Amino acid sequence: MAYKTKQGSDILDYMISTAGKHVNINDISEHFRKCGKSVGTATIYRHLDKLVRDGVVAKYVTDNTGSACYEYLDVGSCRKADCYHFKCVGCGKLIHLECHEVNNFMTHLEQSHGFKIDPVRTVFYGSCADCAEADGDTEQKEGN
Amino acid sequence: MAYKTKQGSDILDYMISTAGKHVNINDISEHFRKCGKSVGTATIYRHLDKLVRDGVVAKYVTDNTGSACYEYLDVGSCRKADCYHFKCVGCGKLIHLECHEVNNFMTHLEQSHGFKIDPVRTVFYGSCADCAEADGDTEQKEGN
DNA sequence: TTGCGTGCAAAGGTTTTGCATGGCA
DNA sequence: TGCCATGCAAAACCTTTGCACGCAA
Predict the structure, then answer these.
(1) How many of the other CB atoms lie within 10 Å of CB of A138?
(2) B140: closest CA of chain A, how far (Å)
(3) Which of A68, A87, A105, B129 has the smallest set of CB atoms within 10 Å of its CB?
(4) Is the pLDDT at A90 greater than 70, yes or no?
């Protein structure tokens, strides 16, 4: 992607406009279709792939069935390195998790275990306060 | 699966024999092929699906490309609640992470943030010691 | 005998790839 | 003008489903 193209900008713009939300290929495709400008699926995949490699966008995979979802990482306003994600399997909410303990823990992992965690890729799954309360601990339903 | 069948037992036996390791559909298929008894893919999926629903086996999805991997949960001898997974994005290895700090951290998350983490679904992404060392390249080499 | 489990193949879905064309620099 | 990006369609992949047959109870 050495060249700056209309499609590339459109895709990035759309990702920025959805910062904090999660979108999948279908969402993006549909958005462009609604706007009258249809962008090929392959192009979307190719650009998203690059954005993910560049650390501009995060890719979250929750299931083999269904498509991956992507999220724009607002690297400017938020120190992404200290920012982890927690996804509630109950209600489907994806929550930003900013917490000193996280960093301490990640430092421990790196120093004692040699594991260098990538915040952009790592998602914690579990139940949020609301869902844990309403649900107890039994099996959860797909809330997505 | 109301009936007890040879295939069902074979699949469960194999899962038990690989306790602590991660296998995918292909591994299972190949194992049976080597043993002379070939089991249909659909059958493997169907049984694994049931085992996952029953909580006997965990299913980990790390990427949309590549197949999901499964792990027998030795609920008897191993406190699965204390067992997390770390996936190296460099070499693709999936590593068991057993560490007291993890538990402390998870407890903190639950008590201070109300997040109850599900160990079976949560996978940490990053670089393992080997890959972090040999870093600098975005390429992946086979580390298995 | 009843009806579930099996296995094959086809279908279903997402993602990737090949190739000719169009657009950026 | 020289390449890169695009877009279409086909391929590649994993997973699920339909259906006839075999096997467990």
Answers:
(1) 5
(2) 13
(3) B129
(4) no
